From TrEMBL:
The lineage of its organism: Bacteria, Pseudomonadati, Bacteroidota, Flavobacteriia, Flavobacteriales. It comes from Nonlabens xylanidelens. Residues 558-686 form the Aconitase A/isopropylmalate dehydratase small subunit swivel domain. It catalyses: citrate = D-threo-isocitrate. One of its GO terms (molecular function) is 4 iron, 4 sulfur cluster binding. Its cofactor is [4Fe-4S] cluster. Pathway: Carbohydrate metabolism; tricarboxylic acid cycle; isocitrate from oxaloacetate: step 2/2. Coiled coil: none annotated. This is Aconitate hydratase A. InterPro entries: Acnase/IPM_dHydase_lsu_aba_1/3, Acoase/IPM_deHydtase_lsu_aba, Aconitase/3IPM_dehydase_swvl, Aconitase/IPM_isomerase, Aconitase_4Fe-4S_BS, Aconitase_4Fe-4S_dom, Aconitase_dom2, Aconitase_mito-like.
């Protein structure tokens, strides 16, 4: 039986009337995304339709999911909200704090030894406030959610950007910062700008070496890393119906890499099969009763150009396997074209590691198809040229694949089976003793992101993204330019052999099985649970409310002008820094250390205007803060791309940064800045970015008149005494301006609860 089945049945009992009213309101057929959005409005159907990309709207999500790295800060904030339990079903999943090194058993024990303080904290907070807790080793949050909590037509938010994975089961599932999650945990509405809609029509059927992963790799090439910003991507067509549910999840998962608010598919037979296979026949039965409300209207899919802001069409019959990368997930290369491209760009053709798993591709189907390639290597006497690493997505997947001999096939090729956790995908990989000085090399993986230093901390690692079966083939061949469709390999007997097309199972033929899935239910009454945080802990720190920045901001000094791509990994690195995610002051020592200084093209080396010396970004920020001087960060396009981690906003705020001024923002990061009571601003004239000089001071001229839809004015004073006056835009509404005035959204929540 499903978790929270009564809540799900309530959603299904209400969705027909709400969708029908939304059709009347809009006067048109509705996309699936619109049906879910309008049926989850906080205040019910409004008097007029919302304007896509403009209107801020209050929603009522059905549930929340948090992973252990972001849950720490989210729960530390929730503890200040004055509530006795969470208002909606919420879960915490321990998947980020487990480092991949020696193998599953050893690595899990090491994580328990080194992070037990954090795990105990998360478990106790979960127990106290009615939150479901998934133990270390239970699995990767998004795979566990897909197996247990996702349901067609639902709305979920999660403190991880790849929450969007649940779109594979027909949800609108959106990654948010912890402060957004706290709002919903505290029983408040969740605010989102009503998204634009991108339709992707899929025709045909995948075959041969092409996999669901290749669909999103192609979409990433078309839309780029910012092409989906502010939009929901909705997939439809006969090609969509031909995909498995977990394949749909893979596609939705990597929608985060194009900046999409989320991605989703309409309810269909593959979702019903998956629900029944994962012991949720009760959801499938309930969904079948309202299935016409769990997909887009026929008229929408027949004439998509009339109902979507943008439409893309992809023919699965002709889609080729892709490798995307290095250093960005939208740089696509068709298999077979890599040799020329790699040679031209000086990418190492030798592949040192093939990594299969992550929240994107760690399902039973993924592992079974990849194992079919691994078995061929054994049968055809091929020696693998690269190392193998496997991360099963959940204990249910791990146990079932072990039972069915799938993991044994990889082990016969000397693969390391890592813990059911994120591992190398998020930088939790002990590959090198000294990553910064490690050699130039190439790896291939089935993960979602491949930014520099993302997997192993080595800036010289060229990471390429592909499907699990393609990862297996290229790891066996040991070359990036290997094309299994056409190329032969030499086996141990000196014979030429070819790899056959991958085969596998959508779902386990003998069903899923697990002995201990790792779930701990909370106490019904958690009032007696005591949460302890040691004052001398270097891992956990109780939060102090931020002081309002105010309206008189003058002589703020430039902290850093970031050059080029500045993701949340650049602003607040993961990897070894994950250990400090619950301690704001300690983790602030990684603030912007990966951002490239526009003036010297170095990282973590900026000018301190107080003494003229160059030093680390956090140390410089602390010097300004100690002197009572505010600071400003300037950035380029799509600033804050990547993770949902609110630490990338909280750290600058903690260190005295009052404003981040950029050419454009990634959605989640802009919201996170607002939540923490900061100014997230964009240049009205992008060319003004070039006016900013290394010794600049910033005077905010009209901040006292901070008003929705009205640009702000900044006087930029240069070292020679000259000045430039620039205009900056913002997207703050009245409620968000109130967050700024109170010092943070959390301060406002506490004030409202005390009233």
């Amino acid at each position: 039986m499903a978790f929270d089945i009564d809540m799900i049945k309530k959603v299904y009992s209400e969705i027909p009337s709400r969708v029908n009213k939304a059709r009347e309101l809009t006067g048109k057929p509705l996309t699936l995304a619109e049906k879910i959005l309008y049926s989850h409005l906080w205040d019910g159907i409004p008097g007029k339709p919302f304007t896509r990309g403009k209107d801020y709207v209050d929603f009522a999500p059905d549930r929340i999911a948090c992973q252990d790295a972001t849950a720490q800060m989210a729960l530390l904030q929730f503890m200040q909200a004055g509530k006795t339990e969470v208002a909606v079903p919420t879960t915490v999943h321990c998947d980020h704090l487990i480092q991949a090194k020696n193998g599953a058993i050893s690595d899990l024990q090491n994580a328990l030894n080194t992070s037990n303080e954090v795990f105990n904290f998360l478990e106790s907070v979960s127990d106290k406030y009615g939150i479901g807790f998934w133990k270390p080793g239970a699995g990767i949050i998004h795979q566990v959610v897909l197996e247990n909590y996702a349901f067609p037509g639902g709305m979920m938010i999660g403190t991880d950007s790849h929450t969007v994975n649940a779109g594979g089961l027909g949800m609108v599932a959106i990654g948010v910062g912890g402060a957004d999650a706290v709002d919903v945990m505290a029983g408040m509405a969740w605010e989102l700008k009503f998204p634009k809609l991108i339709g992707v029509k899929l025709t045909g059927k995948l075959s041969g070496w092409t996999a669901p992963k290749d669909v999103i790799l192609k979409v990433a090439e078309i839309l780029t890393v910012k092409g989906g910003t502010g939009a929901i991507v909705e997939y439809f067509g006969d090609g969509a119906a031909n995909l498995s549910c977990t394949g749909k999840g893979t596609i939705c998962n990597m929608g985060a890499e194009i900046g999409a608010t989320t991605s989703t598919f309409g309810y269909d037979a593959s979702m019903e099969r998956y629900l029944r296979a994962t012991d949720r026949a009760d959801i499938a039965d309930a969904a079948n009763e309202v299935k016409e409300y769990l997909t887009g209207d026929d008229e929408v899919y027949a004439n998509p150009e009339q109902y979507f802001d943008q439409v893309i069409e992809i023919d699965l019959d002709t889609l080729m396997p892709h490798l995307n990368g290095p250093f960005t997930p939208d740089l696509a290369t068709e298999v077979g074209s890599m040799n020329e491209k790699a040679t031209e760009n000086d990418w190492p053709l030798k592949v040192e590691w093939g990594l299969i798993g992550s929240c994107t591709n760690s399902s039973y189907e993924d592992l079974s198809r990849a194992s079919s390639i691994a078995q061929q290597a054994i049968d055809k006497k091929l020696k693998t040229k690269a190392d193998f690493g496997i991360n099963p997505g959940s204990e249910k997947v791990r146990y079932t694949t072990e039972r069915d001999g799938i993991l044994g096939i990889f082990e016969n090729l000397d693969a390391k089976i890592f813990t059911n956790a994120c591992g190398p995908c998020i930088g939790q990989w002990a590959r090198y003793e000294d990553p910064k000085n490690a050699p130039k090399n190439s790896i291939i993986h089935s993960f979602n992101r491949n930014f520099a230093k993302r997997a192993d901390g080595n800036p010289n690692t060229h990471a390429f993204v592909a499907s699990p079966e393609m990862v297996a083939a290229i790891a066996i061949a040991g070359r990036l330019d290997f094309n299994p469709i056409t190329d032969k390999l030499i086996n141990e007997d000196g014979e030429e052999v070819m790899l056959d097309e991958p085969t596998g199972w959508e779902l386990p033929p003998k069903g899923f099985e697990v002995k201990d899935d790792g779930y701990l239910a909370p106490q019904e009454d958690g009032s007696g649970v005591e949460i302890k945080v040691s004052e001398d802990s270097d891992r956990l720190q109780l939060l102090e409310p931020f002081t309002p920045i105010g309206t008189d901001v003058s002589k703020a000094k430039l902290l850093i002008k970031a050059f080029g791509k500045c993701t949340t990994d650049h602003i607040s690195m993961a990897g070894p820094w994950l250990r400090y995610r619950g301690h704001l002051d300690n983790i602030s020592n990684n603030c912007l250390i990966g951002a490239v200084n526009a003036y010297n093209k170095q990282t973590n080396f900026v000018k301190n205007q107080l003494d003229g010396e160059y030093g680390a970004v956090p140390a410089t920020a602390r010097a300004y803060k100690a002197a009572g001087i505010p600071s400003v960060v300037v950035g380029d396009h799509n600033y804050g791309e990547g993770s949902s981690r609110e630490h990338a906003a909280m750290e600058p705020r903690h260190l005295g940064v009052v404003a981040v001024i950029v050419k454009s923002f990634a959605r989640i990061h802009e919201t996170n800045l607002k939540k923490q009571g900061m100014l997230g601003l964009t240049f009205a004239n992008e060319a003004d970015y070039d006016l900013i000089q290394e010794d600049d001071n910033f005077n905010f001229v009209d901040l006292a008149d901070f008003t929705p839809d009205v640009p702000l004015t900044i006087e930029v004073t240069h070292a020679d005494g000259s000045k430039d006056t620039i205009k900056v835009n913002h997207t703050y509404n009245a409620a968000q301006i109130e967050w700024y005035r109170k010092g943070s959204a959390l301060n406002k929540i506490k004030e409202d609860n005390a009233a």
